[in-house]
Design goal:
Number of strands of chain A: 8
Oligomer: heterodimer
Number of strands of chain B: 13
Largest sheet of chain A: 2 strands, antiparallel
Structural class of chain A: mainly alpha
Strand content of chain A: under 5%
Distance between the termini of chain B: 56 Å
Helix content of chain A: 40-55%
Number of helices of chain A: 30
CATH topology of the domain at 51-210 and 282-443 in chain B: Alkaline Phosphatase, subunit A
Largest sheet of chain B: 7 strands, mixed
Order of helices and strands of chain B: HHEEHHEEEEEHHHHHEHHEEEEEH
Shape of chain B: globular
Number of helices of chain B: 12
Radius of gyration of chain B: 23 Å
Structural class of chain B: alpha/beta
Strand order of the largest sheet of chain A: 1-8
CATH class of the domain at 51-210 and 282-443 in chain B: Alpha Beta
Distance between the termini of chain A: 65 Å
Largest interface: A-B, 113 and 104 residues
CATH superfamily of the domain at 51-210 and 282-443 in chain B: Alkaline Phosphatase, subunit A
């Protein structure tokens, strides 16, 4: 018997990657040869601030001052220094500390190659490295109120923030604004991910021609469906949808053009989630006028600007215009409202949130928190499960990509897959909506099932029972670890994989990293392996190799603790006639048997789950990779959890009032 | 005049007006959503004087399959015209004279990085893939299919088609430091802009052949007005954005312009340089349903590609049999029990190698089936296959080692008489894959000095 369909199969075995590569941003910066400076710098701890500052000052004296004296002082000294800036006054780090702000400007000018000016001897790469490293190592006084910018972080280029809506956000937004869902035949292209692993990362969202085709088709479809020519014969829901869009219709007292203006202005306000200028409405109305000129009816003609509103970048993009100068800017109430809605609902603001922004009632933390609580309680917060949750758990493509083998698992079908997926969505969403402890995600007592899924799991419910939550006490189910969708997707098509499951728990629940297997680790000798009868024995042989053991000792035991679940997540006591051995022992010495004890052990590592979940949620909310300036928010979230029985809402509430969530940084457009 | 007044776009206004007049006069059929109906194209060809068909154009496609090959069963032993097909290439037995087997080609910029993402995103660019989990995504260069589309795409309703079977892989791989979207894209419009691919056959069909909307000129006009309007919106928004964000608005602007061009193409009544001999009635009956399984999905997508080439809907196409690292279950093959990626990590285990090789061979079978179909379609003096260059390959050689050298590459067709298939050419030394791409580009009329990391044009094709 050959070794291991088990070994590493879904890993990407990396080739040699130098340490430096990990620190370098791609291409553009690499070519400058200065990547080293991006090394993450430790954030000074409270008690150590003094010492850190001293060290920073002495680094200036030792490393930076000689460069300044060699390259800068000649022009920037005396009573009439160039640019009015006397750099010669900074003869020691101590002086620098007192006027540190100026030095951010120095760093910026050097970075932009504005200084030394053309014609003067430039700083060489080594000198630039010394300068920027030193600037970056300035002890942070309060990262809770700062962002990564090109002034606070060397060679910082910023992130794309005016991103387009993701596929999910777009669908939800159209549904919520128009009241009609986009027909499933209008299939939008899927999105990839960036940042902390989410599709909300603007840098990883691209727009192709086929997007535009779909946007056009979708706008036509929903607007035609939502605004029938005649009111007569419509059911009340259809009528409500129509009236919500056609807020005015021409009659004896209202001219058609004026009615059109009201309709268009109203919808643009909602869809673009901001006040709309009258010149913008004018421009939209030219589409109406053009249709009227062709002889279209009022309704048909007004549909044209309504469609345009939905394919305009004002709708499709999260547009956060910048100030002339660039730099850090606090979000306007309307921008904040949109960020909130995208975070909590994966959609756009509703009327109430928009009105709060209009009325300037989204400026204090209290106002933001009130809206946040209202939004978490709204059914639309299901998006935290469906969008955030499924991306976090790696189940986004569960319905299309996970295909257990039909020969081994003939029971698996689309309906079961959909139920497994729904269970996962409700499990994550439920913790937020019901504001339970986030530890329920690890080891909860609530299980979401319908009749079909209950039958699959062997729970006692009629097969046609609707979705409901059950309380379990045996610790077998409950939490994300033992979700059928997770157990199925971390299996092979024909059998379970303790390695895949163990790795999944380590990475997605505990936030650990599992590096790819080292290159050049020889496969096990055929003869040794073939003598080993069981999967467990084969993996044990495998772990005798120290190169393999360092990771597999962490992963495999976790996976073995889940062996009582088969490749579709059903409970089992035996496999092919053999009793299941679900014991595992971790490098820490902790041992367990079965999912109940595994969960108890993992509870002891709840801190890892909490930190990982917070990072993930913050990364999802911000749509970018986190950096050292976000550390403060993470710590605040963890503190808030500990002070409030680990309740999930506390993470969300901490994020929405945090500095990074309410501010953004722009790289000026020249 | 009902066209929307649009200050900034005044330069193309007169063209637009005449376009509109043309449209009114012609009673064009428009595909929905949006796309030009080829049926219309066929009609106008009927109206064209007989005997003016012109020379059939060259069609070029790039077919990618994931997870490499078992080299020992792939590379034929002998070179030249007298070679014998290797076990994995056996499905090409009847097509041996139509295919060039190319071995020994190398992608030097993929020797670093991780095992998959740094190999696949640049399959058609040949340049270094930026190591990133999201920021500054780059495949190092424009892909060959997109460069071709820029050059020849203006002559067809669609500049190019980008097809696949799976949605973009979600998430990032923080262990190796790459976003997984790299594994889902081989077509890159610019080094930093992957092109979304179409995975639903029904949608592809609609894009190619549309639904007939008789003389619905209002619809066309509506679309054009809407697009003009949003173009202007985007220009205004762009001016208020930060630098990086402006790039995103540029993408949007380019995408809108591309759709405008397609509508324009459909409504312009432009005479084509070459009109395909296509029976409209025959095409209308070929609308695909929703494929029941993976095999059928591949079948239908390859059929659509042939149909697109046959009808001259496009001359450039890329296709991903699956995303990289695809764990697709291949147990439907006799003797195979497991997923593709899982088995590609064969660890020199005989049993796994056998199954891996069977999966490789299955992909070659699908390729052969497509070639057979193309060979059966008469066109000009020869066949559709004669007028094509169909590349088929993977982005590394051995799935266990992920080596980007000795790449498994086949090139089928005669490129309109510019290729001499029926041979095995083995490159010696580190010959860039891009040398082949340069040769293909030049055969499409692009007189380039170089492409990607090419050192010279691959000779003796």
């Amino acid at each position: 018997m050959g070794l291991s369909p088990v070994l590493f199969p879904t890993f990407t075995h990396g080739l040699f990657v130098s340490r430096l590569d990990g620190l370098l941003p791609p291409l553009r910066l690499a070519s400058l040869g200065l990547g080293l400076m991006l090394a993450a710098l430790p954030v000074a701890l409270a008690g150590e601030e003094e010492a850190a500052l001293k060290k920073w000052e002495s680094t200036f004296d030792r490393d930076v001052l000689p460069i300044i004296q060699q390259k800068c002082v000649e022009c920037h000294q005396g009573d009439d220094p160039d640019g009015g800036f006397d750099i010669a006054q900074f003869q020691s780090g101590e002086i620098v500390s007192k006027k540190a702000d100026v030095w951010e400007e120095v760093g910026k000018r050097v970075r932009l190659k504005e200084m030394p000016p053309e014609g003067s001897p430039p700083l060489n790469d080594q000198q630039k490295g010394v300068l920027h490293r030193w600037l970056d190592s300035r002890p942070a006084d309060d990262t809770c109120a700062s962002l990564a910018t090109d002034e606070t972080q060397a060679w910082y280029r910023g992130y794309v923030m005016s991103r387009r809506l993701t596929r999910t956000e777009y669908r939800n937004a159209v549904r919520d604004l128009v009241g009609v869902s986009i027909d499933s035949s209008i299939e939008l292209p899927s999105d990839g991910a960036g940042g902390e692993g989410f599709d909300t990362a603007g840098d990883a969202l691209f727009t192709s021609a086929i997007h535009i085709e779909r946007y056009l088709a979708a706008a036509s479809q929903v607007m035609t469906a939502a605004t029938p020519e005649e009111e007569q014969g419509l059911q009340s829901t259809q009528l409500a949808i129509r009236n919500r869009l056609l807020v005015a219709v021409p009659d004896e007292t209202l001219a058609a053009d004026d009615a059109a203006r009201q309709v268009v202005a109203g919808f643009a306000h909602r869809a673009w989630r901001r006040p709309v200028e009258s010149v913008e409405v004018d421009r939209l109305l030219t589409l109406y006028a053009a249709a009227r000129a062709r002889g279209a009816s009022f309704v048909a003609a007004v549909r044209e600007p309504l469609k345009a509103i939905l394919i305009s970048p004002h709708f499709l993009f999260v547009v956060e215009p910048e100030s002339e100068a660039g730099g850090i800017q606090k979000l306007t109430p309307h921008q904040l409202a949109t960020r909130l809605a995208l975070f909590l609902w994966s959609s756009v603001p509703d009327e109430e949130l928009l009105q709060a922004a209009d009325a300037g009632q989204l400026s204090t933390d209290q106002q933001v928190l009130e809206q946040t609580r209202r939004m978490l309680a709204d059914p639309k917060s299901r998006a935290l499960g469906e969008n955030f949750g499924m991306q976090w758990l790696g189940l986004t493509n569960f319905l299309t990509s996970v295909r257990p083998d039909g020969e081994v698992f003939p029971e698996y079908n689309d309906a079961l897959a959909a139920d497994l997926y729904e269970e996962a969505v409700q499990t994550v969403a439920g913790v937020f909506r019901e504001d339970r402890s986030v530890l329920d995600l690890l080891d909860g007592q609530v299980v979401y099932v319908n009749g079909n899924l209950a039958q699959h799991y062997g729970l006692d419910l009629p097969t046609d029972a609707p979705w409901q939550s059950l309380t379990t006490t045996d610790r077998r189910r409950g939490g994300v670890l033992t979700l059928g969708a997770v157990l199925t997707s971390a299996s092979y098509p024909r059998r379970t994989s303790p390695v895949l499951r163990g790795r999944w728990v380590l990475e997605e629940v505990l936030g650990s990293r599992v590096p790819p297997p080292p290159e050049g680790v020889p496969a096990l000798e055929e003869s040794t392996v073939s003598q080993a009868a069981t999967l467990r024995e084969r993996l044990e042989i495998h772990r005798q190799n120290p190169d393999c053991a360092s990771c597999h000792n962490r992963m495999d035991p976790l996976g073995f603790g889940l062996e009582n679940f088969d490749g579709l997540g059903r409970w089992r006591e035996t496999d092919a006639g053999q009793a299941i051995d679900s014991t595992g022992k971790l490098p820490s010495g902790e041992s367990f048997s079965g999912p109940e004890e595994l969960k108890a052990v993992l509870r002891g590592r709840a801190g890892e789950l909490k930190k990982h979940l917070v990072r993930k949620l913050l990364g999802f909310a911000l749509g970018r990779e986190l950096n050292k300036f976000d550390q403060c928010v993470i710590e605040d979230c963890l503190e808030a959890l500990n002070e409030h029985d680990q309740r999930a809402s506390k993470i969300v509430e901490t994020i929405v009032v945090s500095y990074p969530f309410q501010h953004r940084y722009f790289k000026a457009a020249n | 005049m009902s066209r929307v007044a649009n200050g900034a776009a005044s330069s193309d206004r007169s063209a637009a007006i005449s376009r509109r007049r043309m449209l009114r006069g012609s009673g064009a059929l428009l595909g929905l959503p949006l796309l030009p109906s080829l049926l219309r194209g066929a009609e106008s060809s009927a109206a064209a004087p007989a005997g003016e068909a012109g020379k059939p154009p060259v069609r070029t496609a790039f077919l990618y399959f994931p997870n490499g090959v078992w080299e020992k069963d792939w590379v034929p032993e002998k070179t030249g015209g007298d070679f014998e097909l290797s076990p994995s290439l056996q499905p090409l037995a009847d097509l041996k004279s139509e295919v060039l087997v190319l071995s020994g080609l190398d992608k030097k910029h993929s020797h670093g990085g991780d095992g998959h993402y740094a190999k696949t995103a640049n399959f058609l660019t040949g340049m270094p893939v930026a190591k990133t989990t999201g920021k500054d995504i780059s495949s190092g260069g424009i892909s060959i299919d997109q460069l071709l589309a820029q050059h020849v795409g203006g002559q067809t309703p669609l500049p190019s088609l980008e097809l696949g079977t799976e949605p973009v892989i979600s998430g990032i791989d923080s262990n190796v430091g790459y976003t997984r979207l790299y594994g889902s894209h081989i077509s890159w419009q610019t080094p930093t802009r992957p092109v979304a691919k179409e995975i639903n056959p029904r949608v592809v069909y609609e894009r190619l052949f549309g639904r007939q909307v008789n003389a619905q000129t209002e619809e066309a006009e509506s679309y054009q007005n809407l697009l003009d309007y949003v173009l202007e919106d985007a220009r205004r928004v762009r001016g208020k954005l930060g630098r990086d964000d402006q790039f995103k608005m540029d993408e949007y602007l380019d995408a809108v312009r591309a759709v405008e061009k397609r509508i324009e193409f459909a409504t312009s009544g432009k005479r084509r340089s070459w009109q395909p001999p296509v029976d409209a009635a025959e095409l209308a009956g070929q609308k695909p349903g929703v494929p029941a399984d993976f095999r059928e999905h591949i079948d239908v997508m390859l059929d659509l590609m042939v149909l697109a080439f046959q009808t001259d809907a496009t001359r450039v196409c890329s296709f991903m049999f699956a995303n990289d690292v695809s764990g697709r279950n291949f147990s439907f093959l006799d003797g195979v029990a497991g997923g593709h990626h899982e088995l590609s990590h064969h660890e020199n285990n005989e049993q796994k190698i056998t199954q891996y090789q069977q999966i490789n061979r299955w992909h070659v079978e699908q390729f052969a089936r497509m070639l057979e179909k193309m060979r059966s379609i008469r066109e000009g003096e020869g066949t559709l296959l004669d007028n094509s260059m169909i590349l088929f390959g993977s982005s590394f050689s051995d799935g266990n080692r992920h080596d980007p050298d000795n790449l498994p590459i086949l090139l089928a067709g005669r490129g309109g008489g510019t290729l001499t298939p029926g041979r095995h050419l083995a490159a010696e030394g580190q010959v860039p894959l891009c040398n082949l791409y340069l040769a293909m580009l030049r055969r499409n009329g692009l007189e380039l000095e170089s492409f990607g990391d090419s050192t010279e044009e691959l000779a003796h094709l």
